[in-house]
Amino acid sequence: MEFLAKSAQPEKHKSGCLAITLFDGGALSVSAKKIDDASEGAISKIVKLGDFSGASGQAMLLPAPAGIQAQRLLLIGLGKLPVSAKSFRSSMSSALSRVISSKTKDLSICFDGVDVDKHDIEWMVAQTGELAATTTYTFNQFKSKEQKKAINLTKLTFLADGKKQQTALTNAANNAQAIGNGMNTTRTLGNLPGNECPPAYLAKEAKKIAKGQKKLTIKVIEEKEMKELGMGALLSVSAGSDQPAKLIIMEYKGGKKNDAPHVIVGKGVTFDTGGISLKPGGDMDQMKFDMCGAASVLGTMQAVVEMDLALNVIGVITAAENMPSGGATRPGDIVTTMAGLTVEILNTDAEGRLVLCDALTYVKKFKPASVIDIATLTGACLVALGNHTSGMLGNNDEVMDNLRFAADSTQDAVWQLPMGEEYMRQLDSPFADMANIGGRNAGTITAACFLSRFTEDYPWAHLDIAGTAWISAGPKKGATGRPVPLLTQYLMNQV
Ligand code: BES
Ligand code: MN
Ligand code: ZN
Fold first, then answer.
1. Which atom of ligand 1 lies nearest, measured to the CA of 437?
2. Which ligand is nearest to the CA of 275?
């Protein structure tokens, strides 16, 4: 999809469809008023008939009345002024769905006179761009030809008021496009089934993103080198699989040579059967999404490259498949991590922390400015926060404040959970330095406590995306692309 911004009057701009906004009680925005004037009151007639109230989420597509240059008009209801960020997003989402179900090829939108609480027009463009990129996403590569759904919309133009605003909106639209593209990469990787997307595929995808990019280099650590590095925890997860584990390092040098890098580490369990602690059969297919943390790292790195961000960023993917077999790790097995700590693996289904801990030790050598790990780590996080909000824990308030700030502007929500010694004690083991599970209670917290033993040397935050990375049922079943907006915005704010 192509995004651009153009300084033009809405009534004179040629496009397949022009979108304008109305508010509660049928109040016209500045651009709606211009259209109304140019069309002998076509908009106020619709309002007077009672067909359009301007309520939040309302969307109406009409053949354009005489007097304006677009072929169609899209009326978008935004509700009460000032519009809340949430309501803006959901209204734009339903408006875009309405256009996408039509034959419209190019859409132009004018936000003249729209007032969103705490946000400016650049934010509106960024949000709308991201929504447009993701609403037009399809994943039908495994459908036979006849079933493929065609999307007609390929171009989105934001109408600006003057050249100066055009420059600002172009910039916002380009960033939105990079984030949207990154999200769609993340979604496709998440949606791919386990047989198509083993650890080696993630390594291939990293190389694909780096192809032709001078600032991005890829290094893949194979199992032999993992052994030499002492990564006993990571290797214990892939032990039962025919697919070798891969530790993928994506080093992006956009900043000054000696600037400390920001590191993002993604859990890439390409399929999680639970291992010998086998999961129940129902819904096990969803564990193809257990690499969504890794996929979000790939999507974010793609966005960083596309935006040519002036920052040093390192993306790390710790990829393995968790399978039962004669070579698989048994409950009770004790392994030694790269950090030297020994772990009693009481449940082979708590494998995410095992693949992450060695990666988190490995990244120490980069002397990071911050480290964020992203993982579909615990079912308990779904119980606590549902599908709307990612869990956040960490050892550094500044990193978490920065994440909260980025979450607020992208609407890619996080919520912090507590950590502390009292939870850490749940991981005590009679036989090793620690166990890999901490009992039924506070599962998300004890998982983060486990990770925190490996992150003491740098500012660190952990995102548990078990609830937010994919939608598990219904027509929208599939990967969401979260938290690519959050991570990318976090990095943009560090420049
Ligand atoms: N990948 C799962 C977590 C998960 C489960 C995410 C369901 C999304 C939906 C993870 O590897 C896992 O199995 N965690 C266990 C940990 C437990 C054994 C301590 C869990 O959450 O049950
Ligand atoms: Mn598991
Ligand atoms: Zn898992």
1. 19
2. 2
